[in-house]
């Protein structure tokens, strides 16, 4: 583990254009469950019943209850030190930006400015029927759309829906120009985001708590917790910078 940490620190410093890709594992140390590990959401809830368009259209009450709880849970969470490291690395010019599957906006709250939200965000809302923007309070109170009486939803991408085209193509362009892709806290199970590592011409590194089906396709895999590993790498980078 030690040499891998030192190797990552060296790659972070020498790379010209590093892009970071994060998943739910980046937010668990802030208290937000992920989806597929032991305490993940999908261990308790069937994603087909809450994270698909048919769930929204046919079981709105179940859909609404799941997201209402997640939104209320977000009121008490904060970015952890690992998020702060990534914000500092952008300010110091070590990373170009973060492509994230997370919808919690913790990267932006930590201070990152270039964040491509590939699965949208759970803090803004719109009407599923007329697509007009909607108030958070109106969603939480389960009120219908003021414009058309339709069903309100968070601005997230549901299974089977297309990723936001501009965000997706900008993130893909950044990955295809990167000489280092740092993947953090994702099982790499979900298409099309899980295609990113093989589309990067540079080195690919994964920091993850569990093994993934893609481990062997990556140049370096560091098994561990995002917050702890990122702080450790950052200490080595800072020490080398001091000379
Ligand atoms: P799926 O098999 O229904 O989705 C796979 C589809 O993603 C592909 O067939 C492809 O058509 C589509 N896709 C979306 N945007 C694309 C793009 N810009 N370029 C190419 N293909 C694109 O469902 P899945 O594989 O189980 O999950 C992946 C899909 O579900 C993706 O669209 C992903 O964004 C979305 N998703 C939503 C959530 C959520 O709950 N917030 C979670 C994960 C994935
Ligand atoms: N540090 C490092 N890795 C962690 C940590 C941590 N503190 N906590 C969890 N992990 C790892 C888990 O071992 C798991 O492999 O993060 C990974 C999270 O994987 P998933 O739960 O599958 O989450 P993610 O990859 O982001 O899912 C992709 O699926 O359902 C959708 O909307 C959801 O956008 C999400 C998408
Ligand atoms: Zn409407």
From TrEMBL:
Active site: residue positions: 119
Xref: InterPro entries: DHS-like_NAD/FAD-binding_dom (IPR029035), NAD-dep_sirtuin_deacylases (IPR050134), Sirtuin (IPR003000), Sirtuin_cat_small_dom_sf (IPR026591), Ssirtuin_cat_dom (IPR026590)
E.C. number: 2.3.1.286
Keyword list, A-Z: Metal-binding, NAD, Transferase, Zinc
GO MF term list: histone deacetylase activity, NAD-dependent; metal ion binding; NAD+ binding
NAD as UniProt keyword: yes
Domain Deacetylase sirtuin-type: 1-243
Domain of life: Bacteria
UniProt enzyme class: transferase
Protein name (Swiss-Prot/TrEMBL): protein acetyllysine N-acetyltransferase
């Amino acid at each position: 583990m030690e040499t891998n940490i030192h190797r990552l620190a060296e790659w972070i410093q020498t790379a010209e254009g590093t892009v970071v890709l994060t998943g739910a594992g980046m937010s668990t140390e802030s208290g937000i469950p992920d989806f597929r590990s032991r305490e993940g959401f999908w261990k308790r809830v069937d994603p087909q019943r809450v994270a698909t368009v048919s769930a929204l259209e046919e079981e709105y009450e179940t859909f609404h209850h799941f997201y209402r709880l997640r939104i209320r849970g977000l009121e008490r969470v904060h970015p952890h030190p690992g998020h702060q490291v990534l914000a500092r690395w952008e300010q110091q010019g070590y990373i170009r930006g973060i492509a994230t599957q997370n919808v919690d906006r913790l990267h932006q709250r930590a201070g990152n400015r270039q964040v491509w939200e590939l699965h949208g965000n759970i803090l803004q809302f719109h009407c599923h029927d007329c697509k007009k923007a909607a108030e958070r309070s109106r969603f939480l109170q389960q009120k219908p759309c003021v414009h058309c009486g339709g069903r309100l939803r968070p601005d997230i991408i549901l299974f089977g829906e297309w990723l936001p085209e501009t965000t997706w193509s900008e993130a893909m362009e950044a990955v295809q120009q990167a000489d280092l892709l740092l993947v953090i806290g994702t099982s790499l199970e979900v298409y099309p985001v899980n295609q990113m590592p093989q589309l990067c011409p540079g080195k690919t590194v994964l920091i993850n708590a569990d093994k993934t089906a893609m481990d062997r396709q990556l140049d370096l895999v560091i098994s561990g917790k995002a917050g702890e590993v990122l702080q450790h790498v950052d200490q080595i980078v800072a020490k080398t910078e001091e000379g």
